[in-house]
Every structure is written in structure tokens, then in C-alpha cells.
Write a structure and sequence with these properties.
This protein has about 130 residues and is mainly α. It folds into two domains: about 50 residues; about 60 residues, Arc Repressor Mutant, subunit A (Orthogonal Bundle). Helices cover about 70% and strands about 0% of the residues. The chain contains eight helices and no strands.
């Protein structure tokens, strides 16, 4: 049976090998990003570290997790930075800088996309929650 037909039967996207869907090396890539989100390694560094081609790593990651490596890095950064946003003693520009964002506006756009509110609105809600408790 041709690979494409077998892939369709297995519910996989064409181009994904059955043995690599959910394989250990893809999970290790994700775990490395989770650990090094503030200063993530480049795709080339990750690929070299696991002995795979850059385009293969990128494609397999996207097939396994439904997102690109770059989008995943941004998601992880925003998720971790939300705790710093709650701390009113840290300016939002500094929060963006600590998360590795070049500017506060980029951070704000991505934060709003993820949490459906600006970092300032998130901070305000966190303060209101503290007053109630």
C-alpha cells in the first residue's frame, strides 16, 4: 500500500511518517523550548542537537502539535509572562523585555491574542482580584 494511502487511513497528514508522530525527539524539542523560552535556541541549533534536518524538524513539530515552533515559543513566553504582568511593581515594558520581546507593542498584541485583553487590563483584573480576597 502506498504511504499516502496508509497515512490517510491512519488519520495522519501526508508527509508525516507513522514512526515520528509523537516520537521522543519531537517531545524533547518541545521540552527544550518550555525550559528555554526566554532565550530559545534557534531552529538550526535544535535540529543539529537531535541530528535532523531543519525543515524536517519544523514540519514534524507542526504536524505533531498543530503549530509552528515560532508560534509555540511565543505562546510559552506569553504564558509565563502573565505572572509578571500581575506584579504592578514591574513596568509592562520591562516585562516585555524580560520575555525576550523587542518591543512592548509586539508583546501587547500577542498577549491580547492569547488572553483576549491587554496586559494592562489583565493587571487591573489581577489587582481587583487581590482586593476581594
Amino acid at each position: 500500500m502506498p504511504f499516502r494511502a496508509a497515512a490517510r487511513i491512519a488519520g495522519m497528514r501526508p508527509g508525516t511518517r507513522p514512526d515520528e508522530r509523537g516520537s521522543d525527539w519531537v517531545r524533547r524539542v518541545r521540552e527544550r523550548i518550555d525550559e528555554e523560552y526566554a532565550d530559545p535556541p534557534t531552529l538550526a541549533t535544535v535540529a543539529a542537537g537531535i541530528g535532523r534536518d531543519v525543515s524536517h524538524v519544523a514540519t514534524t513539530f507542526r504536524n505533531a502539535y498543530g503549530t509552528t515552533i515560532g508560534d509555540y515559543v511565543r505562546f510559552v513566553r506569553i504564558w509565563h509572562l502573565r505572572r509578571l504582568v500581575e506584579d504592578a511593581s514591574i513596568p509592562l515594558a520591562q516585562v516585555a523585555q524580560l520575555g525576550g520581546f523587542a518591543d512592548q507593542s509586539h508583546f501587547g498584541r500577542l498577549f491580547r491574542r492569547r488572553f483576549c485583553m491587554t496586559p494592562g487590563e489583565y493587571r487591573q483584573r489581577a489587582r481587583e482580584g487581590e482586593r476581594r480576597t
